[in-house]
Design brief:
Blueprint (H helix, E strand, L loop, with lengths): L3 E6 L17 H17 L6 E4 L3 H14 L6 E2 L9 H10 L4 E6 L3 H9 L13 E6 L5 E7 L4
Parallel strand pairs: 1-4, 2-3, 2-4
Antiparallel strand pairs: 1-5, 5-6
Helix pairs in contact: 1-2, 3-4
Length: about 150
């Protein structure tokens, strides 16, 4: 059962690209991802032990930085439901039904905000900055509550 979920938006992407799918992470985006991962390491008692990531290049690159920084043992998995135009109800139900306890997902706006709102009824986050992470903790009934938000300092 999902106990803790960290929802992360990818770091700042490059402004010039051939296709949205192949849009790379910028140097600033790489620094943002590393900074937020460092914040998690310094403040969290327990860290995620699983990671699901959108198939887009900028999310994959963000995930590589965070995954390595957090020293997650298991390789991260690409999840097609984590694209920006996904259905937040379908995605949320999928995550709640999965076998993860401490999970971080890396995706895009607007799905990250919509997922946060779906999983945490009191969530008032309607947009994520690049590389922002929101931590949601779930009670024994599966009701989520936003516990903390991490913003890049870069």
């Amino acid at each position: 059962m999902l106990k803790t979920l960290w929802i992360m938006r990818h770091g700042l992407a490059e402004s010039e690209f051939d296709t949205d799918f192949n849009r790379a992470l910028s140097a600033v985006g790489k620094s943002q991802a590393a900074d937020v991962a460092e914040q998690l390491i310094k403040t969290e008692v327990e860290l995620p032990d699983n990671m699901l990531v959108s198939p887009f290049r900028r999310t994959q690159e963000t995930a590589q930085i965070v995954h390595q920084s957090l020293a997650i043992d298991k390789p991260f998995e690409t999840e097609d439901l984590l694209v920006h135009f996904a259905d937040p109800h379908l995605l949320g139900d999928f995550l709640l039904a999965a076998k993860f306890e401490k999970l971080i997902v890396v995706s895009h706006m607007p799905i990250v905000a919509r997922l946060c709102q779906y999983l945490s009824p009191d969530c008032e986050i309607y947009g994520f900055q690049t590389a922002q992470v929101v931590k949601i903790e779930f009670d024994k009934n599966g009701v989520g509550k936003v516990n903390h938000s991490y913003l890049p300092r870069v």
